[in-house]
Amino acid sequence: MREISTAIDIRASPDQVWAVLIDFAGYPAWNPFIREASGEPVVGSKLTLRMYPENGRPMTFKPEVLAAEPGKVLRWVGHFIVPGLFDGTHEFTLTATPDGGTHLVQSESFKGLLVPFLGKMIEGTQRNFANLNVALKERVES
User: Fold this and answer.
1) What is the dihedral of CA 32, 36, 38, 40, to 10 degrees?
2) What would the DSSP string read from start to end of 2-66?
3) Contact in structure between 15 and 138 (CB atoms under 8 Å)
4) Cα(142)–Cα(139) distance, integer angstroms
5) What gap in Å lies between CA 105 and CA 33, rounded to an integer?
6) Structure confidence at residue 112 as a pLDDT band (50, 70, 90)
C-alpha cells in the first residue's frame, strides 16, 4: 500500500469549498487535473472522471462514491481494469479553521499488485493534487 497527501488553507468556509468541489460541471473552468467530471456526490453512485496528469495521457475512471458529507468529506474508490490490480481510494477532507476558513486535505491510498511498479506515476499524482488544491483555492477565494 502507498499513500500520498497534500493540504492547503482556503479563506472560505467549508460549505463554500464544498459547493465548488461538487460542482462537477464547473471543473473545466478551473480544475487542471480533473478537467471533466460528472455524476452525483451520493454514497454508492458512480462518478465519471477524466484526469489529465501533468506528464501523461488523459485517463477516464469511474469510481464509486464511498462518503459524501457536505462541508466535511468526499471519498471515492476507483479500480484500474479490475479490483486488486491498482485501486485508489481518493479523499477530500474539509476542516473548519478558527478564522472561518477551511483546511483542505486531499489524499489517496493505493493498493494492488501494480503499486510497487508505479512509483513515478504516484509521485506525479501528488504534484497533480497540489496543483488542484491551488486552483481550488483560487476559484473559491475569487
Assistant:
1) -10
2) EEEEEEEEESS-HHHHHHHHT-GGGHHHH-SSEEEEES---TT-B-EEEE--TTS--EEE-PEEE
3) no
4) 5
5) 16
6) confident
Integer Cα distance of 78 and 37 in angstroms: 14
Q: Provide Rg for the chain, Cα atoms.
A: 14
Distance of CA 61 to the CA centre of its chain: 12
Cell numbers standing for residue 38:
460528472
CA dihedral 135, 49, 59, 87 (to 10 degrees): 100
Whether 5 shows a pLDDT value over 90: the answer reads yes
pTM: 0.92
Dihedral over Cα of 41, 43, 46, 50: its sign: positive
Burial (CB < 10 A; 0-12, 13-18, 19+), residue 142, is exposed
Between the alpha carbon of residue 66 and those of residues 90, 94, 96, 139, the distances in Å are 10, 16, 22, 25
